[in-house]
Specification:
Elements (H helix, E strand, L loop, with lengths): L37 E2 L5 E3 L2 E2 H8 L3 E5 H18 L4 E6 L6 H9 L3 E4 L2 H9 L7 E3 L6 H10 L2 E4 L2 H13 L8 E6 L28 H9 L4 E7 L10 H18 L7 E3 L17 H19 L5 E4 L3 H4 L3 E13 L3 E6 L8 H5 L5 E3 L9 E6 L8 E8 L7 E5 L19 E6 L2 E6 L4 H5 L10
Parallel strand pairs: 4-19, 5-6, 5-12, 6-7, 7-8, 8-9, 9-10, 10-11, 11-12, 14-16
Antiparallel strand pairs: 1-2, 2-3, 4-13, 13-14, 13-18, 15-18, 16-17, 19-20
Helix pairs in contact: 2-9, 8-9
Length: 468
């Protein structure tokens, strides 16, 4: 278990509030709390103008609280900086595997972003949220035939990952020969062989990866695609990983991809789109120092333009796919504190009413978080405790060595930066119902995900007659 003890002595939960002056531009991925976070006159944490303790009273806990201001600000910064620094056409896509639900897709789409989906379920959600199909891109390393047909019928772009998928698409074209089936719009995902310092499980750009065509097969892939009249190959895609702070790997990626564009032209493939993926990290702890959204976007735009100039190529439509850096900081999770266990000279456990079923990242990736007590924001941090979940699992530890004020049962604990890969990876482990989620803005809270009930838990169960 990785310790999450903050660097230095911290006085209270107020330290996590952003000290912003008028006119200050804040990059959401560089903050710990959502941009709208405030402390009210009762010393309680507010997000989106809503008292967190009141939200828990109204909607229960655990509770995902999504700040609309923070999410929209991140969308706008990506969208506007690409327009500012890139001379050609651009399109920002939200990597919705971070958190895919109707409301999130609708907010993102309303800011002009497209959606990156990785399954039929995510695609179905995006379509039903009103996202325009021409702004939806389907990824995945093992898409089923049914998922591919859904994508084709929807009119979205398919990012082809491997030979099997490419051949399946050709077979679909042949099966539907003579029908009104349009050319299938595809991009090709290639593995760039670029290393970056991130967790092994979320590093996708190195050669030893399950994702993408091997670059050594590039000529063969281009030759094959160029001979398929039913496929309309519009561009290339690559992605090097997630929670990345380094600038250089993304610059290297952009340069390599432009060279691939040049190679495609040898096979009369007129590729007009270049998708450089996402991966920009966020600030989970005080020591994290990710580039801002603007810094990352500017670097990508500049290197693509420089590489195209060097290769004498026209500027392609430039796409990127941020996920975590768009939504992680926009959300917190509120829990109710329960029992405590003091083991003298070893540690103090403080338990919450959730854990690994609503946030599996600590037990899966050894991820670290920060937390505050929402109803004691100004209280001094006098305790070092281990925050334990309620699941029947010794490893269900949310935060080890968390610095908190003295807590009591019924206090409301808020864990920051939970917008990415918390709800989307949530489970019913121990048959716990998954939490509710609310979208907060302008002192109003709207339910966007209902809390599951015990009836929901058994809804898909089937009891054979002979067992009744």
């Amino acid at each position: 278990m990785v310790s999450t003890h903050p660097v230095g002595v911290q006085p209270s939960g107020n330290q996590y509030l952003s000290p912003r002056g008028s006119g200050t531009t804040v990059s959401p991925n560089q903050e710990l709390l959502p941009l709208s976070a405030r402390v009210n006159r009762h010393d309680f944490l507010e997000i989106g103008g809503c008292d967190v303790t009141t939200l828990v009273q109204q909607f229960g806990s655990p509770l995902y609280i999504l700040d609309e201001e923070t999410l929209r600000t991140a969308c706008q910064q990506y969208r506007d900086t690409f327009k500012q620094y890139y001379k050609g056409e651009s399109q920002v896509l939200y990597a919705s595997k971070a958190w895919n639900c109707l409301a999130v897709c609708a907010v993102v789409a309303s800011e002009g972003l497209g959606i990156d989906v990785v399954s039929g379920g995510e695609l179905y959600t995006a379509i039903n949220a009103g996202v325009s199909p021409d702004k939806i891109y389907l990824h995945g390393n093992n898409k089923s035939r049914e998922e591919l047909i859904l994508a084709i019928e929807s009119g979205c772009t398919i990012v082809v990952d491997n030979w099997y998928e490419l051949q399946t698409l050709v077979n679909i074209v042949e099966t539907f020969h003579g029908t009104s089936l349009q050319k299938i719009r595809i991009m090709l995902r290639l593995t760039p062989g670029i290393e970056c310092h991130t967790h092994e499980y979320i590093r996708t750009g190195h050669l030893d990866s399950k994702f993408g065509f091997d670059p050594n097969d590039l000529d063969e892939v281009f030759a094959f695609v160029s001979k398929q009249p039913g496929l309309n190959c519009v561009g290339l895609h690559a992605h090097i990983g997630s929670q990345i702070f380094e600038r250089q790997p993304h610059r290297d990626l952009a340069a390599v991809m432009v060279q691939w564009l040049r190679d495609a032209a040898k096979y009369n493939l007129e590729l007009t789109e270049l998708n450089v993926g996402g991966g920009l990290g966020i600030k989970y702890t005080e020591s994290d120092d990710p580039p801002s959204i603007e810094e990352w976007s500017k670097a990508i735009c500049e290197v693509v333009q420089e590489a195209c100039t060097a290769e004498n190529l026209p500027l392609p439509k430039l796409l990127c796919e941020p996920g975590r850096s768009l939504i992680a900081t926009a959300c917190v999770t509120a829990y109710t504190i329960g029992s405590a266990k003091v083991i003298p000279d070893i540690r103090t456990y403080v338990t919450i009413d959730g854990g690994m079923s609503d946030n599996p990242r600590p037990i899966t990736y050894q991820s670290v978080y920060r937390a505050v007590v929402a109803n004691k924001m100004s209280a001094s941090l006098t305790q070092t405790v281990t925050l334990a979940g309620k699941h029947c699992e010794s490893g269900d530890i949310l935060i080890k060595n968390a610095q908190l004020p003295k807590t009591e049962p019924g206090d409301i604990l808020v864990v920051m930066g939970t917008g990415a890969y918390n709800y989307s990876m949530a489970s019913n482990y121990n048959r716990l119902p998954r939490p509710a989620a609310v979208l907060v803005a302008n002192s109003e809270a709207n339910l966007i995900l209902q809390r599951e009930t015990y009836q929901d838990i058994i809804r898909q169960d089937c009891l054979p007659e002979r067992l009744k």
